[in-house]
Amino acid sequence: MDGFTGWPSELAARYRAAGYWRGEVLGDLLRPWPEWSPQARDPQRTAVVTRTRRHSYAELDTRADQLAAGLADLGIARGDRVIVQLPNSPEFVTTCVALFRIGALPVLALPAHRRAELDYLAGYAGAVGLVTADRGVGVDYREVAAQVRAAHPGLRHVLVVGDPGEFTAWSDVRGTPRPMAGPQPSDVAFFLLSGGTTGLPKLIPRTHDDYAFQLRATAAEMGFGADDAYLAAVPVAHNAALGCPGVLGALRAGGRAVLAASPSPDEVFPLITQERVRLTTVMPAVLSLWLETGPLFGADLDGMIIEVGGAVLPPDVGRAVRPVLGATLTQWFGMAEGMLCFTRPGNGDELAATTQGTPMCADDELVVVDEQDGPLPVGEVGELLVRGPCVLRGYYAVPEHNRRMFTADGFLRTGDLARFTTTGELVITGRIKDVINRGGEKVVADEVESHLLAHERIRAAAVVPVPDPGLGEKVCAVVVVDGVAPTLAEVRALLRERGLADYKLPDRLDVVDALPHTTVGKVDRRALAAQRSTSTAVAQRMPGEPAPRGGGTARAAS
Q1: Does the N-terminal or the C-terminal CB of the chain have fewer CB atoms within 10 Å?
Q2: Does 457 score more than 70 pLDDT?
Q3: Who's near 59: CB < 8 A, 6+ residues apart?
Q4: Are 61 and 30 in contact (CB under 8 A)?
Q5: How big is the CA angle at 520 (ends 517 and 521), to the nearest 5 degrees?
Q6: Which CATH number is associated with domain 435-541?
Q7: CA 243 to chain centre
Q8: Phi, psi at 130, each rounded to 5°
Q9: CATH 3.30.300.30 spans which residues of the chain?
Q10: 416: helix, strand or coil
Q11: How many CB atoms lie within 10 A of CB 150?
Q12: For the residues 493-522, what does the mean pLDDT come to?
């Protein structure tokens, strides 16, 4: 595929010889695998559960075959890109599996994305189709789809789960199942989205070979098998809930995938009890919420494993998991780009609360380097570089970006600051990227700044993180204005009108006389962030956010 960078042949041969890459394709999900027991091969066993529905392997397998044939009848072919923007639902599963069987490539968008993000993805990926829901909380996805299709004539097909309006109903796309030529195991299977270091996210190509290995390896390390249930409490389009082992890993193992609409305690705790959930994945902010509310709900998570990653986990929060919830904590450093480090269930509570554990497999290579890419001794902090059988060798179709992000010998520059303990565990200490981690959602400063400058009275803008006890970080917009300063509500309304996702909207607005600059003339975001964390000035904040502490230079927006 043009724009895809594969592994060097000698490394690919090594990974196959080691048994990581076995020639599996993801279109075989929902069908029995050779190592399954006779009991697990029962086609009527439950595969996917929601609050109101249960679906067997046979039912979903048949629907995926019908959908694959129907999509092929529409002209969607191997190598075509299709944006999939669906909530946690059986339709997400069957849509992805159907596209895998054709060899078409899902581009996994988040339910929180709006016109700005989908417009970008449609152009970047060259998408021929979009699969979306009819409505979500506060949004009509069909209106968004109409705007995106109008801007991209190549987006020939819009399929809608629910009331299709002017588009095609997803439920009507059915063909007579037939053999498909399908993809090769080394082909790209789908695209995840990067957190991004500048601008909008890059597309991360994941192959059938490497993702099938990730599904198997993470399930094995977590002790997840055919008798177990995995709870997807965060969006399945995230790598964490998709394949660590996630929903796809649960199906690969012959288990059950339990799909929740949200991580809200009143939804997930009954599902955990009802389905005897063995494993789930959450962000630290959600874990804190569960710790606060678990006793109120009488939640007993004894025997359950909770994977936590995506943001900084305060050690005291990690230490509370077993005494409060009865569950076992595993802490993860995970990247959609393919690197996974995590503590194992048997490592002990203290290690899980204070480190990100060890790599997924023996051929994962991690090195901590100084500013000249020189390896640092154990215990010293530097940038983490990674490569391995699941780590991409290049983002899709961005050669200049790839030259900056990868070393000459194929190591990915993560942008994360890290160190290793004397016993070999990874500890992430910070990052050098201008990305705000808002409760696990990555907000790229450059992107939001470009939209802020569309306001007629904003002359200059910078976006920086401010500490938040619940989310880890929130988004603060620091602006220089001409005339009367806009209100925070006005700024948020403008960005929402421009199609920006809600999680990217500023939580706080500071108006300043000038932005500080570095010696090379760039806006000094680090200085701004430091000022925001100690500022006593009155700033516009979202309801419920406490006033900042310390001294500073911001003035209130009127």
Answers
A1: C
A2: yes
A3: 47
A4: yes
A5: 40
A6: 3.30.300.30
A7: 10
A8: -140, 130
A9: 435-541
A10: strand
A11: 10
A12: 89
Omega of the bond leading into 245 within 30 degrees of 0 (cis): yes
The average pLDDT across 305-320 equals 93
* CA-to-CA separations, 434 to 98, 382, 430, 524, in angstroms, rounded: 37, 16, 11, 11
Residue 546 has pLDDT above 70, yes or no: no
Cβ atoms of residues 22 and 96 within 8 Å: no
Given the DSSP bridges, would you call strands 81-85 and 129-133 parallel, antiparallel or unpaired?
parallel
User: Over 50: is that where the pLDDT of 112 sits?
Assistant: yes
Closest CA to 358 of 332, 319, 381, 378: 332
Q: Give the per-residue pLDDT at 82.
A: 99
Residue with the larger pLDDT of the pair 9 and 520: 9
Residue 80 has pLDDT above 50, yes or no: yes
Domain with CATH 3.40.50.12780 in the chain: 9-359
Say how far apart CA 327 and CA 277 lie, in whole Å.
Answer: 11
At 428-447, the pLDDT tens digits run 987 777 789 899 888 888 88
Rounded to 10°, the helix 488-497/445-452 angle is 100
User: Residue 103 has what pLDDT?
Assistant: 98
Confidence of residue 311 (pLDDT cuts 50, 70, 90): confident
The answer to whether the beta carbons of residues 506 and 491 sit under 8 Å apart is yes
Both tokens of 534, joined, read 């100690």
d(CA 119, CA 152): 8
What distance lies between CA 86 and its chain's CA centroid? 14
pLDDT, position 542: 60
Express each pLDDT in 161-197 by its tens digit. Answer: 999 999 999 999 999 999 999 999 999 999 999 975 4
What 8-state DSSP symbol labels residue 378? Answer: T
| Domain 9-359 bears CATH identifier 3.40.50.12780 | yes
The sign of the torsion formed by the CA atoms of 432, 433, 439, 440 equals negative
